[in-house]
Predict the structure.
Amino acid sequence: MQFGIITPVFEGCLDSLELLYQDLCGQFHQKWTWMLCSNGYSAKLDSFASGKKSKLLEDHLNDKADIIYTYTPFEETPDFNSLLINVGKRRDFCIKSIEADYLFLFDADAKILDPNMFRYLEQFLTHKQGDICIYKIQHELKVLPTFPVEYCDIDLLNFVVKDSLAKKVGYPTDLNLEEGMNDYRYFTRVFQAAEEQFLFIDKIFAYHNGNNQGNYVSMMEMYYNSLPQTFYNLIYKLYYWYHFGKEKKWSKIITDSIRYLKFHLN
């Protein structure tokens, strides 16, 4: 069974990608393809991927594991909405391009806790033949998922999807906040396409904590801090700081909100 792992990447997340690479190489089940996709070409990311691919060859893992660097045409992302849409386009592009039996969508900050994760899933899915398999992860705040699954009750790291189903429904390439953020919209799509049937493993396999992102977190925080002070961007900043910030920056949220209200009320 071949697993595909799709990761949207930025030059600022190279340290986190190194950690994720080590986790992948530490898996006892080594049949996986890791596809990294950037917004426009990046020589640094291309060099990282080719270097790690050469390392697979040196370690005699290249007959099973593979690393692919790709990119979509560069798009300006002047605000958070456009960034989310761009990341969605990259994920959808990779879903359509990669060849695997089951697909994971891992962010750069994913941390695999169990070296048996892929082997366990391969044995479980071979026996059960499910379209979606959900398992537990340790999130920064709590263990996910929580049932019944609603918005914010599940993480993109929480499940693996059959390749054919993922290709059928695709990842959202637009933004519709009434339906929730795009990760949840993707889960809803595959869940409904699978007629709300899924397999569940009551075992914690991975860890999602923004502090693992290293340079990626710093880059994203600087990006969010540079956004115009609009109401929606304040909400996005609140979400980001709450989930990923090393400190709960309530004072800055309140200050920014007051400034925004003063400006528009005047």
Q: What stands out?
A: Confidence is low (pLDDT under 50) at residues 211-219, 243-249. The first strand starts at residue 3 and ends at 8. The longest helix spans residues 80-97.
